[in-house]
Recover the amino acids of this structure.
């Protein structure tokens, strides 16, 4: 089947967080991480059938939900050790992270993260009374690598209880290799630190950069970790609010389940359930086509920067649809740049400081190609006037 990712689908006026936050309707939003593509038609059809039933009461999650998850990760990612009893469903990965931190730490504990990183990592740690223990990624040759020496030092601190691992990494665009993940696991297991792997972008990887589920590496990795996953990013269904926590250790799982209940995020809606089942059972062809389109969008962006903006390095995009660009040579604070792009040139990117990196911007390329080209043109106009 052919999928038309070039189609411009009006979203303004639909209560879209991405499109309706800007007061000026002429602002082109290339910021928050959702896509401007319709989801897989199989998902739309499954939701249509559910709507036609006309009754939307409390939802019992069926066996086929768990079967869809275990089958998908087994056949697509070679993760065969997931069982139904390991899975806890919830409304989103961010609520999941918060509940896990609540369950597995006490006030004052340290939680490792690796900046620049998804901004909700910082708030989820602090909102649960814990301390951010940042082991910043090392930026060199326009890309990022882990600082394993810093990770070893921080993990060895008796106050350190958890590590939040972003795999694939947002916003750095890295898809961590099996070797890198193994080093992370060896360090954390040695020091009794539980790895909480946010793997929400796991389907969005490009050729030569396969995603490795952290918990799939070995039995010790499975038992010393908790994985958060969702089809929301890959299939553009974040508004349906469905995600899963995978925890093999029974004691950890019991504590997390209790925290999910205490945080009142233990119920899900019928549309999220149907969408997940359909995505994992029937959405693979659409996903393959999407990845080809996203890779071509990334090439367009890289070619544009090479031709017009060679002084501003673009980080290699191994996974996600979020491109991380180094604008430090421009000499303008990132937040000021974000606001001026919005007000003066009507394009919206994310400023780096919210992820822990001044001088960088995050660009969402998950949109029709003509829209991306227009956004880049507006960026060029801004820089040419500096």
């Amino acid at each position: 089947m052919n999928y038309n990712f070039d189609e411009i689908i009006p979203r303004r006026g639909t209560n879209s967080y991405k499109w309706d936050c800007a007061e000026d309707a002429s602002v082109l939003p290339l910021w928050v991480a959702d896509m401007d593509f319709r989801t897989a038609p199989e998902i739309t059809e499954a939701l249509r059938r559910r709507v036609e039933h006309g009754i939307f009461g409390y939802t019992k999650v069926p066996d086929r939900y768990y079967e869809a998850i275990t089958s998908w990760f087994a056949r697509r990612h070679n993760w065969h050790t997931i069982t139904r009893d390991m899975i806890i469903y919830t409304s989103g990965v961010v609520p999941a992270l918060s509940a896990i931190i609540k369950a597995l730490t006490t006030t004052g504990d340290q939680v490792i993260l690796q900046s620049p990183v998804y901004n909700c990592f910082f708030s989820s740690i602090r909102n649960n009374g814990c301390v951010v223990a940042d082991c910043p990624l090392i930026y060199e040759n326009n890309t990022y690598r882990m600082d394993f020496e810093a990770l070893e030092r921080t993990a060895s601190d008796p106050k350190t209880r958890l590590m939040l691992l972003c795999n694939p990494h947002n916003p750095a665009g890295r898809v961590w290799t099996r070797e890198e993940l193994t080093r992370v696991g060896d360090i954390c297991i040695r020091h009794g630190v539980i790895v909480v792997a946010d793997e929400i972008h796991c389907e969005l990887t490009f050729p030569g950069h396969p995603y490795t589920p952290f918990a799939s590496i070995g039995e010790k990795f499975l038992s010393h970790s908790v994985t958060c996953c969702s089809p929301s990013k890959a299939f553009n269904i974040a508004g349906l609010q469905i995600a899963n926590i995978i925890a093999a250790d029974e004691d950890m799982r019991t504590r997390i389940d209790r925290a999910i209940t205490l945080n009142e995020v233990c119920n899900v809606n019928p549309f999220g359930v149907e969408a997940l089942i359909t995505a994992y059972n029937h959405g693979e062809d659409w996903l393959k086509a999407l990845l080809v389109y996203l890779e071509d969008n990334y090439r367009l962006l890289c070619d544009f920067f090479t031709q017009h903006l060679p002084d501003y390095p673009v980080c290699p995009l191994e996974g996600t649809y979020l491109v991380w660009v180094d604008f430090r040579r421009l000499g303008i604070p990132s937040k000021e740049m974000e606001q001026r792009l919005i007000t003066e040139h009507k394009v919206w990117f994310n400023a780096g400081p919210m992820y822990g990196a001044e001088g960088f911007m995050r660009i969402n390329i998950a949109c029709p190609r003509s829209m991306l080209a227009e956004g880049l043109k507006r960026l060029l106009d801004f820089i040419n006037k500096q």
Remarks:
- The first strand starts at residue 28 and ends at 29.
